[in-house]
Amino acid sequence: MLLSIPDEAIANQDLSASDLLVELAVALYQTGRLTIGHACKMTNLSEIEFQRQLAVRGIDIRYQPEALDDDLLTLRIGL
User: Fold this and answer.
1) Could you give the dihedral angle defined by the CA atoms of residues 7, 9, 12 and 16, in that order, rounded to the nearest 10 degrees?
2) CA-CA distance, 63 to 41, in Å (whole number)?
3) What InterPro entries would the database entry show (predicted)?
């Protein structure tokens, strides 16, 4: 998908194209419209880097129950 935003719409906002993508991805993640994986792909950030962007904004990470099960299994195997 190609998204075109007129330069005038963000003039004087001191936002680069990558900054704008991060802001959009964070907003979509916060409203539940993007998963963290899709947000990372959209912004070209690693999961840790995207999580830092969420933390800076005080946004909680949505932890999926199946992810918890996977993590608990990993911990049991590793112990």
Assistant:
1) -60
2) 18
3) UPF0175
Residue with tokens 């959009």: 24
Contact assessment for residue 51 and residue 58, using Cβ atoms and an 8 Å cutoff: no
Q: Tell me, rounded to whole angstroms, the distance of Cα 33 from its chain centroid.
A: 11
Residues listed for the chain: 79
Contacts within 8 Å (CB) and 24+ apart, 11-16:
none
C-alpha to C-alpha distance for 45 and 24, rounded to whole angstroms: 13
